[in-house]
Amino acid sequence: MSLLEIIILLPLLAALVTWLGSPARITALAASLLNLVLVGWAFLNYQSLHGADGAMAFRHARTVLTSPHIQFAVGADGLSLTMALLTVLVTLAALWSLVDKERIYYTSTLLIASGALGAFLCTDIFFLYAFHELALIPTFLMIALFGHGDKKDAAWRITIYLGVGSLILLAGLLGVVWYCSPEKGKLTFDLLALKPLAADAPYAKYAAANFFVLLVGFGTLVSLFPFHSWAAPAYAAAPTPIAMMHAGVLKKFGLYGLIRIALPLLPTGANTPWVQHALLYMLLGNILVMGFVTLHQRRLDGLLANSSVMHMGYIFLGLASGNALGQNGAVLLMFAHGISVALLFMLCGRLRNQLGTLEFDKLGGLAANAPFLSLIFGVGAFASIGLPGLANFAGEVLIFLSTFKNFQASEGFTFLQITTILSLWGVVISAVYMLRAYRKIFFGQPSAGHFMSDPSLLQRVPMFLLAAVLLVVGLYPAILLNVVQVSLAATGLK
Amino acid sequence: MSPLSLELGLGLLGLVLLLVESFASVPRKLIAYAAIGGLLAALAVIVSGAAGSVPDSLKEFYVVDPLALFYKGFAIIATLATIILSLEYAPIIHQFVATHPERTKEAGLGEFYSLPLFVCVGMMVMASAVDLITIFVALELVTVSFYVLVAFMRRSAASLEAGVKYLILGALSTGLLVYGMSWLYGMTGELSLSGVAYKLAHWEGNSAPILFAVGLMLAGLAFKVGAVPFHIWIPDVYQGAPTPVTAFLSVGSKAAGFVVLTRIVGTFLTPGSVVAGPVIQILLILGGATILLGNLAAIAQTNFKRLLGYSSIAHAGYLLVALACIHTGGLKMTSGEVAAFYLATYLPMTFVCFLILSAMRAKGYGEDIASLKGLGRANPTLGLALAIALASLAGLPLTAGFMGKFFVIFATVLEGYYTYLAIAVIGAATGFFYYFKVILAVYSKPDGPSEGPTPDLGLLSKVSLAVFVAAILVVGVYPDLIRFALVK
Hints:
The structure holds 2 protein chains of 2 kinds.
Chain A: H1 3-20, H2 24-49, E1 57-65, E2 70-76, H3 78-96, H4 103-121, H5 125-146, H6 151-180, H7 201-221, H8 231-237, H9 240-250, H10 252-265, H11 267-271, H12 273-295, H13 300-320, H14 324-355, H15 371-385, H16 391-403, H17 415-442, H18 457-475, H19 478-490
Antiparallel strand pairs in A: 1-2
Chain B: H1 4-23, H2 28-48, H3 66-97, H4 109-128, H5 132-150, H6 157-188, H7 193-201, H8 208-225, H9 233-240, H10 243-268, H11 276-299, H12 304-324, H13 335-362, H14 375-378, H15 380-394, H16 400-415, H17 418-442, H18 459-477, H19 480-486
Helix pairs in contact in B: 1-2, 1-4, 2-3, 2-4, 3-4, 3-10, 3-13, 4-5, 4-10, 5-6, 5-10, 6-8, 6-9, 7-10, 8-10, 8-11, 9-10, 9-12, 10-12, 10-13, 11-12, 11-17, 12-13, 12-16, 12-17, 13-15, 13-16, 13-18, 15-17, 15-18, 16-17, 16-18
């Protein structure tokens, strides 16, 4: 068994043992801590052990099907390790923050973690896809069974949207395999063996359509406008650990897939003008339309859910920029957004448990009795706005700068640059709704009947962990960018 | 050892068991165990590869190729599972068969255990049949045995209704099939499929009569596999028949129909065939309509057995589309092998569902989806097994069901049938909805305040449940396991 296989299977094993009846909390926390150590070790040693060329490391493959060639192949480069690090961090925090919950909460969180790790660490398209689906099942079930509010409706919506999205994605992936396999008649799902054949004349005419199918498929999973309407109700309804795992980690799979599969293998498709324009319009929808929708939320869970849809727009902008700077920014923002949204959902779950309501009108003045909580919430909220010094800022600024990389004053703004200018308004919108929410909940007149206390020291650990990561990466983004940059260059992205 | 001796042996065993049932007063369970023993022995012969070959004089009628061996093994496993399921379901059968259930203990059970053997013999012959007459006789052996089995619970109105419906529509479809065969024979003068294929490839003159024959035969077979628009009988018959028979129908009868379809379609699509184009079109349209209707109609179902009926219609659609995709070189499988693979993945997941349904029924639960509520808490093992089987039916990755759909969808991509790719995708997405509805019920709290008896299974059923669930999971990550059996 190779290192990465152990990393993927450890949460799965822990889930199984928990299901069979071992002490849930101890098993889950031990497994996720161990996984954090393993992934951390791989992350820190990636460059020193495997050279600085950014190639896939820790590779291992077992053939599963001979024709078409499918392997259970694992491998990791800077990009996958960054995502794996995000996964183990959020998993640990999500499991730690569970208090007095049934066994099934631990099992499902571990299952989602295993699926996400498998999706990020497999280098075979088949298993990359399959692991993501594995992680979706517990997500659907947990929302339907233990959700809040209109949980049945939210669960059906996410099931159908993501089910259809995944199948569209499957069709697109099969197209990639068909077009890009090096030899006809010898189809392979091995990502590393697939060459960007789509640039060749016979395939070029399909490349744009195929890329678009992938964009819709992956985009649905990331709540790209207009395929987003599952996300807000699902996150608002989801039990806290599930919201943390899905909004924080699993959703990033769609973006990861675009960077890992669609952009490098179908470069001509990605550069086709109509595809680019479609993407720009859609991401503007995310930022502006969803921004205004978020402005009008009256409850904290709805606000966080919608804002997490909105922020996907910036990441898509990074991918649309078409240069390395923007893609690095996108990866950085994927990581930062995952951490910050997980932190906010964790705090939101705590508020719901203690106060029983999340409506802004009924809340106020919580900071007086819960200074630590209000400080941590502030870190999460400011990170999410993009305050300098916190991780999200580093990602966003790289993305915005990247679109002006080839700016020529004499030629005026391109469509991409106009989109960026409009997107900048999104930052203002985020600042308005986040600060307003922060003020209403934590400051002002304390509302009657709602008392909030700070968490115990032990329960502060996961909050502190995520907040510290936001701060460290915000001040020293090179810690991630050093490994991401070379790997993105090595995948052949331009 | 001649492979035909397997069929003869099993047929003989069935006859002996019927005589025992009539004249000896042994415990009826022993009859089931004898049948299981015989089937296991036959399976061992096939798996060990000792089935041998047939003499040249028979080759016009009966072949033993990997596909035939595969379907023979398939028939035996399906029959085994059915008899094990019947043991589980015996109390219900007895309740609806015996005139005085309280006085007689096991009336009628012996026949119920031995009749599946004849179906098995029919399916095994059919797997090898390459001659119109042989195909027809084997198909009738299967169908006639099923007429009896479907209507077996003679004191249950639903079972009788199902029996009559199945008899009438089955007879009609048989009529269509035979009529088509006689036209084909009349036009080509050949009964063996190889002869027909040769004539079709070198046909000169009017092809309309051939098309007429082909159309009739495909319609007759579409009845047998339950393809739209010949699917009307399926929901009622599935709901009314005894649960083990429903399971057997949905797996065995479907497999029987598809092995014949594979052989006959292969003949029609022989290179240069004059009817190749229309046959592919017919298969695609039938398949597309079947996928859509089966899946969409399943959404509204509240009875689990009926839902499985519609799901079985939907799966038939995927199989038909698979048969139409003949340029599957990239998969290193023929279209028939893709279909066989699909059926092999379909068998374990369907039987898991029916095993659990039988266990629930035997404890007095209804067959509605709502009556599954609370199963996940009452018996977590059964709940998990059912959830895995349903996830596999829905086609979730890392389960066998996904691999089956994966090959079919891949075949449509290779072939360039993008419309049918879209239909397959829509159908699969719909499947998510109604299969998840059932999974959700399994893990919901029961409606009533009181808890009913905990459903459980006998030892044999537990073993087969474990084997089937393991098969679903293993094939989901290691599909070559089945392909090695299929593509020798």
